[in-house]
Amino acid sequence: MGVLYAKATYLYPLFETQQSRFFPVENSFSQLLYRTPLKKVSTGTQWYYETTLVAGYRQHLERKFPAMTDSGIRILTPINNMSREKNSARSIQKKKPDGINILHGYRKFLERFPDITGPLTISEQHILETLLPTAAAIQRDDVRLHGQALIEKTRHYCIEKIDHLQIE
Q1: How many CA atoms lie within 13 A of 53 on its CB side?
Q2: Rounded to whole angstroms, what are the CA distances from 97 to 53, 93, 94, 100, 101?
Q3: What is residue 38's three-state secondary structure?
Q4: Residue numbers of the chain with a pLDDT score lower than 70
């Protein structure tokens, strides 16, 4: 679960002092979010759950900003006043990449992945994190591999697997 407030708020130090192995910090944020009972709200054709607190936030935002209705659910109007069709959930869903496109993008990242001994960007660090489980499996089979050589072998292995999946 994500957290409700920005990282630098007063809640983090408070919640972090209360956390334990059996009560992680996310529990404190969940308790904050769900401190009032959930209510099932129906819009006619759809339904969703909402707390009194979240309903208050939603109503406040709807008063502050012009709202529009799409499929019975209140949505904030974007600042750039795009047409209703462009804002519909259907047009947003069409833009979601499918699995093959995601793999293709990931493969491009792997192709140009830099040497790990130099500084890495945040994106490169995220890609490296995705390689680590596979690198551990590869290293289990060949304990002599370490560092850059291990990551290179893992990178090539992953590219080969993606290419194999796209052929089928």
Answers
A1: 10
A2: 34, 9, 8, 8, 6
A3: strand
A4: 1-8, 64-97, 166-168
pTM: 0.42
The owner of tokens 């001994």 is 117
Please give the Cα distance from 85 to 136 (Å, whole number). Answer: 47
Helices (H), 65-121: 84-87, 89-94, 99-111
Report the distance separating Cα 2 and Cα 46, nearest Å: 25
Distances (CA, A) of 136 to 41, 115, 149: 47, 18, 13
Kindly state the tokens that stand for 134. 């596979």
| Structure tokens given for 142 | 């060949």
* Measured distance CA(25)–CA(155) in Å, rounded: 35
